[in-house]
Amino acid sequence: MIRQRYQSIIIQSICSLLIPFIQLFAIYVILHGHYGPGGGFQGGVLLAVSVLLQRLYLGKEVAYQKFPPKLALALGAVGMLIFGLAGIVPMAFGGSFLDYAYLPLPGVSGAELRYLGILIVELGIGLAVFGTLVLIFDNFIGGRW
Amino acid sequence: MSSLSILILAPLLLASFLATLVGIWRLTWAYIITIIGIALSLAAASAGLFRVLQEGTLRHYLGGWPPPFGIEYVLDHLSAFMAIIIVFIGFVIVIYPPGAGLYHVPRKGVPMYGLVLLLISGLIGVVVTGDLFNLFVFLEIYSLASYALITLGGNRAVVASFRYLVLGTIAGGFYLLGIGFIYFSTGTLNMADAAQLLPALYSSPTVVAAAALIVIGMGIKLALFPLHVWLPDAHSYAPPVIAAILAAVQIEVAGYVIVRMMLTVFRPEYFIEILPITSAIGWVAAAGIIFGSLMAIAQKDFKRMLAYSTVAQVAYVGLGIGLANPLGLIGGLLHILNHAFMKSCLFLIAGGIRFQTGLHEVSQFAGLGRKMPLMMTAFTVAALSMVGIPPTCGFFSKWYLILGSVEAGNWVFVAVILTSSLLTAVYFFRILEKLFAAPPNDDEAVTKATEPSPKIVVPILVLAIGILVLGLINALIVTRVLWPVVALLPTG
C-alpha cells in the first residue's frame, strides 16, 4: 500500500526532524516509569509510533531496510523474555514469581533492588509493546515479509 | 506456600517467546523448544497434582505480596485436575506433525509454535489463578491466540475466526462487566476474599447482575446451546490440530470458570436456590445435547460432524453443572477429561485421513477400515467411547450424570442422556459401517490408501489407549480427585 516515498519536502523534513525527539521522549518515559507517570507500555507505544511514522513517510522499500519487520518480531519476543526471566530468576533464588527483592544483582539491596527490578520489567514491557505494535501495523498494511 | 502453580505456567510462557524468537532463524529449534517447554510444564503439573492430593491446596503469592493486595495463584484439586488435562492434550497436539495437523508446515518466522504455547499458557493461567481480574487477562490471552490459530485453516477459516472474535469479545466483555460489578460491591478481586464478603450482599441487584453476566459470558465461551453459533464454523474450518485443542480443552475451560464461580466465589446455594442459575443451565444444556446430536447426524463433512458433536458433548458438562449435586457435577467434570481425550483423538484422525488420502466427507470413507487398520482401531475406540460403551471412559461420565439426574429426581434429563447416546450411536455407527462393512468404491484415494507414518499414528494411539486406561481407573480419579471438589455441594 505504502509503496513509495512521500514527495512533499515539508512532510519529509518535519518527519525526519520529529522522529529522534519522539524516540528520545519514549526512552525517557520508559526509564522514568518507576518513579513517575509513564512506564513500559506508554514508552513502548511512543517508540512504535516513531517507527510507524518512518514507515508512513519513507515508503515500504526504504523503511523496511531501516527497520526490518523481523526485527520487530524479535524485539517483541526478547522483551517478553526479559519480563519472564525477571519473574523466574527470583524464584531460583528463593523468592516468589516477580519478587524483585531476590534478584541476584551484586552491590544493591532493599528498596534500590526492587526499584531496579521494576526498571528491568519496564524495559521488557517497553520492548514487547514496541515490537508488537510495529508487527500489527506491518500485518495490517499487508504484504509478505 | 508453594511455587508449583507458577511453575506449570512459567515454562510455557518462556518457551512461547523463545520459540517465536528462534523460529525466525530455524524452525526445528522452535519445535524443540516447544516440546521442552510443554514437557517441563507437564512434569510440574504432575508434581502439582501429587502434592495437592497429599497436602491439599497450594498457594503462591506473585511478587511476594499476600492477598487481597497481591495476585495469588491457587492449585487445588479442581485446578490441578484441569491443568494436567490441558498440558497433556497440548503435549500430544504438539508432537503431531504440522503437515497433517495444520495442512502445511508453517514458514520460518511465523510464530505458530509461539501461539500454540500462548494458547496453552492462557488456559493454564485461567485454571491456576486465584484472582478474578487475572483470570480475565488469561481468558483474553487464550482467546486471542485461538482467533489467530483458527485463521491458519484458509479463507473460510478467517471469516469463521472473525465471527468467533466478535462473539468471544462480547463474552469477555460480559465477564469483565461482571467482575467489575463484584469489585464495585466488595472492593476486592481476590476470589477467596470475595467469597468472604459476598454473602452479606447476596440480595443486592449489583451482585445478581454480576453473577448473571459472568454466567452468560462463559456460556458463550462454552458454546452452550443457544449461544453456540460460532462453534461449528470455527471448529470445522480450523486446521485439525487446532480444532483438536479447541474442542478438547479450550471451550471446557469456560465450564471450569462457571464451576469455580459456583463453588469458590459464590456459595453453591446462591446459584441453586437464590438465583435459578443452575437449573437454567441444566435445561439449556439438555436442549443443546439433543440439538447438537441431531445436527451432527445431518452433516456430511467429517470435521463438521465432530464440531456439532462438540456442541452436544460440552452440553453434558453444562448438564453436570445444572444438576448441581455431587454425582452430577462429578459426571460433568469427568466428562471434561473424557471428552478431551475422545475429541482430540477424533480430530487428529480426521487430520490423518485428510493428509493421507485427501478425503474429508464421510460418504467417501467406504473401505478405508482395511487400509489403515491401526488408525481405524483408534477411531473405533473413540467412537465407542463417544457413544458410551462400558470399558471406555465415555460410559462412566454418562453413568455419573444419570446417577445425578436420578438423585435430583429429574427423569427428563435421564431420558435426554439416553436418547443422546442413541443419536451419537447413529452418527458414529454410520461411519463405522462405511469404514469396515461398505464395499470399497473405485475411488483412487481409497484403493491406494496406506497406514500413515508412525509420527501421525503414535499420538492417535496414545489418546486411544488413554481412553481405555481412563475407563479402567475412573474410580480412582473420582474418589481421589473429584470427590473433594464437590464435597461442598448439597446432596439430594
How is the main sheet of chain A built?
Answer: none
SS-based class of chain A: mainly alpha
Q: Which percent bin holds the helix content of chain A?
A: over 70%
Order of helices and strands of chain A: HHHHH
Portion in beta strands of chain B: under 5%
**Most extensive interface between two protein chains, with residue counts:** A-B, 21 and 22 residues
Radius of gyration of chain A: 18 Å
What's the main sheet of chain B like?
2 strands, antiparallel
Offer a few descriptive terms.
heterodimer; A: 145 residues; mainly alpha; elongated; B: 492 residues; 22 helices; 2 strands; 77% helix; globular
Tell me briefly what this model is.
Chain A has 145 residues and is an all-alpha fold.
Describe the protein in words.
With 145 residues, chain A is mainly α. Chain A has one domain. Chain A has five helices and no strands. Chain A has helices at 9-32, 40-58, 60-66, 69-92, 110-140. The longest helix of chain A has 31 residues, at 110-140. Chain B is mainly α. Chain B has a domain at 298-492. Chain B has helices spanning 4-23, 27-55, 77-95, 98-101, 112-128, 132-150, 155-186, 191-197, 205-222, 231-237, 240-265, 268-274, 277-298, 302-323, 326-357, 368-371, 373-387, 393-408, 411-437, 444-447, 454-472, 474-486, and strands at 58-61, 72-75. Chain B has a two-stranded antiparallel ribbon with strand order 1-2. The longest helix of chain B is centred in the middle third of the chain and has 32 residues, at 155-186. Chain B starts with a helix and ends in a 6-residue tail after the last helix. The mean pLDDT of chain B is 90. Chain A binds chain B through residues 70, 73-74, 76-78, 80-81, 84-85, 87-88, 91, 95-101, 145, and chain B through 1, 3, 6-7, 10, 13-14, 16-18, 20-21, 24, 60-64, 73, 109, 111, 114.
Show the helix and strand layout.
The complex is a heterodimer of chains A (145) and B (492).
Chain A: H1 9-32, H2 40-58, H3 60-66, H4 69-92, H5 110-140
Helix pairs in contact in A: 1-2, 2-3, 2-5, 4-5
Chain B: H1 4-23, H2 27-55, E1 58-61, E2 72-75, H3 77-95, H4 98-101, H5 112-128, H6 132-150, H7 155-186, H8 191-197, H9 205-222, H10 231-237, H11 240-265, H12 268-274, H13 277-298, H14 302-323, H15 326-357, H16 368-371, H17 373-387, H18 393-408, H19 411-437, H20 444-447, H21 454-472, H22 474-486
Antiparallel strand pairs in B: 1-2
Helix pairs in contact in B: 1-2, 1-5, 2-3, 3-5, 3-11, 3-15, 5-6, 5-11, 6-7, 6-11, 7-9, 7-10, 9-11, 10-11, 10-14, 11-14, 11-15, 13-14, 13-19, 14-15, 14-18, 14-19, 15-17, 15-18, 15-21, 15-22, 17-19, 17-21, 18-19, 18-21
